[in-house]
Design brief:
3 copies of one chain form a homotrimer. By secondary structure, chain A is of the alpha/beta class. The first copy, chain A, folds into 2 domains: 8-28 and 91-370, TIM Barrel; 31-89, no CATH class. The first copy, chain A, has helices at 8-15, 33-39, 58-70, 79-86, 91-101, 120-127, 137-147, 151-164, 188-200, 209-222, 248-252, 268-277, 287-292, 296-303, 322-345, 351-370, and strands at 18-23, 104-110, 130-136, 166-171, 226-230, 259-263, 281-284, 312-313. In chain A, strands 1-2-3-4-5-6-7-8 form an 8-stranded parallel β-sheet. In chain A, helix 7 crosses helix 10. The radius of gyration of chain A is 21 Å and the shape is globular. In chain A, 58% of the residues are buried. The A-B interface holds A 41-46, 48-49, 51-53, 56-58, 61-62, 65, 75-76, 232, 234-235, 238-240, 265-266, 291-295, 298-299, 338 and B 243, 245-246, 248, 252, 269-270, 273-274, 276-280, 301-302, 304-306, 308-311, 343, 346-350, 352-353, 357, 360, 368.
């Protein structure tokens, strides 16, 4: 059904295999429409107000536009019809449909928050593709606090053990006080004292800056890519303090370990600058692409400003409804198509260059820093939707 | 003269009635060209330099483009011709022409600063539509300081009395020190002490943070929508401290009272995020649309990123020359038309959805939070220009 | 080869003479490909990583697009071919080609950092046009420290002497601690004490805030335009503290001396606001245009938001490879063409207005504030590429 006049660039974007370098599990159990609509709102930590609807958002419109076809529905189907059709499947069936349609060859799964969602093994099985772990540093810290013994040693031991089978680490420092303030490596004596206080208080969610900083430097030593939540997330994160420019001194001291700035809205231009400024810094629009829907092309265009093309990655940050794992890919394909065709049609880029940049962002850059094979042994992907 | 092929969306946008949810009076007396040109510059508090012209700006070009027709002139007429034609009317005649042409069914008038402009009653009479009051909190504070007696009681009494006939309140804290710093509710003893100091100093313009914070919580208790000046205004406002992200803690404690972020430039994406993060937060481009002129569509597009569509409002923030009360509407119609047609033509939105979103922003959302009747008893509006 | 249907606006943009109001020298000696690729990365202060290439960036693509023709190559030529062709010329020959092709009538040269590049006289000779000096304040400070004697008097004497033949001054305070913090004029006793400390420490790169502030006020007294590096530069500059909004209090006290905000990314909208807010503030996209390549039109559009049209300037900030001195002009012509044709085609601006705004930005505004003759005695410019 593809028109014969479709450009080589359009065809390439439609079929290119993606490495989704930051994602979470899919829902493992069914739920009601309220749960689904709330999952279309990222920032609000409370249930949506009665007058509101998760469908009346850019991501809601994008679900009805792009996800409908995967369920055999026409584009722009009414919310109620979409919901009824979706309800004819269980979450595992939905995940099989949407994960396959995403055209992703490798999934890099942050396992640090997994309440109500599939674990790594399930995710790999359902997607039919390789799923790799990304280890969350704050979870390692909590495990080290519970382990007892010398905290720094326990942290290091757990991190090394877990990371041996993982491809990278992740920090949610943005949610634990933000990036402003001292991010230097704390002396071990301070780390031990802080761990002692935390254990004495009974552990729980880690907010201590000394221990958070300690974890970052352990991740740098490990050498595997370190992902940072940056910018847009839920309101527990102070968006003002999630500006990646606060990371400047940390980045100056970060050596060669690849550092990946995730999501980045509304700081995607600042993040792109940092990706140019440091050989080891990368940028990824992540979550933002899903939530901008029809505005995702404008965001993707801004990601293509100062960031060198070998420093840009793709992820969906899907969590919960499997629509999001697919939609990230669909909107990214759609958005990069619009932006790059714009460059080519204006005479600014050649089509060959555009195709090459697509490959860099879709999988080459991620394959390089995570040391993944670019192809996938399980056969060609077949994006749908 | 409308082409027969005009889309249903275009036709709808052209005719939809607007609720202008934040506006001021029109000039009540005539003035010279210098006054007019200065009114086309929002940020500068000094007279324009001799080498400059208020016409050589986006808003100046937009006046010559959109307002010219209302005065029977061709588009893009020369500034001198525009000025001469305008001078053939008095300000009341101009207001009648421009307010009618705006296609606004309800005007929500901030009466807190009204030097040289029409009052609420005059505004209602001239516009031929309902004009509702928005009570400025800093003015209530100044009245409470003058009233004598117990300050907190006086404030509460004046606010309740004035607000009984009003639809909402407004804070210009952005102009009185900005949003950074503590915005918690101060204890009554501190309020009394601060009021005493202020009265002892002879009152005057309110800058005391304790009293400003007190006013905000009184407005929250009142429960009617509370508008905040955010971002772009004149240079008395420190734009850096008018970033709405500084409001985070305040919003976390704000309960259910609707809070409306006005203007927002260049923080419209941050404001949209807050509108997603809190059930009671709303966003409105206000003043910005007028001053961006040909760039207003790009701004309106950014307002349609993270903000849920049931959380976006319209206003012109017109003050002084009645052109601005009309131009806000004309540029909004023009901008939303471009943006939504872009979404529809790209296949991202259906036309029916686009029409529905127009209604939400144009009047439904405002009618809901201000508890206004959506229609207007005085008959259909007829936008012109 | 120009199509006969080319608009008057397009033709005007193609031929208009530019005043490049902020530029540096061209390389005076040859170098290897690594040096060239590093010069296409502005932000990184280290050599590019082995996996990276300066060609895989927006500016790299723009070089292959726009500069190739100047060297007789097809558009989008492969990097290796570009490099080989470039290597057939020496740097002076390249500079003659690229400077002539830029269509610049006057070059305003910041001589404060000139390692490995042509000096003012050479630049004038090679370009065949007038080159004027812009005096860097931090260099004057370093000369005053070395001069001995009373520091404030020495600074004033050197500044007045150097500025007599110069058109303006420049501050790189953004690189020396940034704009946040006190920017008031320090008392002379403090200046003397700070100078003494600096001299006692053996001088070197100036970071002392007292002396930096002192220099700014001397420049204001001089009355010639004062340029500020703002925003985007290399990572020695903390981009967060290079936000021009931190200049607010300084600008409030800056009197009538023209102040020019350079580069400004990602704060171009904040800078445009300041240009509206103060009669003496100007904005220029500078360096940013080169580094955004195909995204430069989007940036140029944002520069045309709040800034009055008589307050916007052009510069390339070229340094090193002469490609950059030409490319700034080529990308600016290309970008302003796209943006203004967009306004005209949408019916928002008349073509005559667009042509007039081109002249304002291209040369009229700069000629006015730097007191330059608008035409150039050496005959018409002939932009190429």
């Amino acid at each position: 059904m593809t028109p014969v006049t479709q450009s080589a660039l359009a065809q390439h974007i439609r079929q290119v295999a993606l490495i989704d370098q930051h994602v979470h599990g899919c829902w493992s159990t069914g739920g009601d429409r309220r749960r689904f609509e709330n999952a279309l709102n990222e920032a609000n930590t409370e249930p949506l107000a009665d007058f509101d609807s998760g469908f009346d958002t850019q991501v809601g419109f994008a679900v009805r536009n792009h996800c409908a076809a995967v369920l055999g529905l026409p584009k722009h189907v009414e919310p109620q019809q979409y919901w009824e059709r979706r309800s004819q499947f269980n979450e595992t069936e939905l995940a099989r449909l949407f994960l396959a349609a995403a055209g992703v060859s490798n999934w890099l799964v942050d396992t640090g928050f997994a309440e109500g969602v599939t674990d790594l093994a399930e995710f790999g099985e359902i997607s039919g593709r390789r799923a790799y772990e990304v280890v969350r540093l704050e979870q390692v810290a909590e495990q080290a606090a519970q382990a007892g013994g010398d905290y720094p040693s326990a942290f290091e031991e757990i991190l090394n053990r877990r990371a041996a089978g993982a491809v990278g680490t992740k920090s949610i420092m943005a949610y634990r006080g933000g990036f402003d303030g001292d991010l230097s490596e704390p002396p071990t004596t301070e780390v031990r004292a802080a761990a002692q206080r935390w254990r004495d208080e009974g552990g729980g969610r880690l907010h201590d800056r000394v221990l958070l900083r300690f974890g970052l430097y352990q991740a740098l030593r490990l050498g595997k890519p370190l992902q940072f939540h940056v910018g847009f997330g839920d309101r527990d994160c102070d968006l003002r303090k999630a500006n990646p420019l606060y990371l400047l001194d940390f980045l100056r001291n970060s050596g060669h370990t690849p550092i990946v700035l995730l999501h980045c809205y509304p700081y995607e231009r600042e993040a792109g600058y940092l990706a140019q400024a440091f050989n080891n810094v990368y940028v990824d629009g992540g979550l933002t692409v899903n939530h901008l829907g029809a505005r995702a092309p404008a965001f993707i265009a801004r990601l293509l400003e100062l960031a060198p093309f070998r420093k840009i990655l793709y992820s969906s940050d899907g969590f919960g409804p499997a629509e999001l794992h697919f939609l990230g890919a669909a909107l990214w394909r759609n958005g990069i198509d619009r932006v790059l065709h714009g460059f080519v049609e204006a005479g600014d880029w050649s089509e060959a260059d555009a195709i090459r940049v697509v490959d860099l962002i879709a999988h080459h850059n991620a394959a390089r820093i995570y040391r993944l094979a670019s192809g996938d042994p399980r056969g060609p992907i077949s994006p749908g939707g």
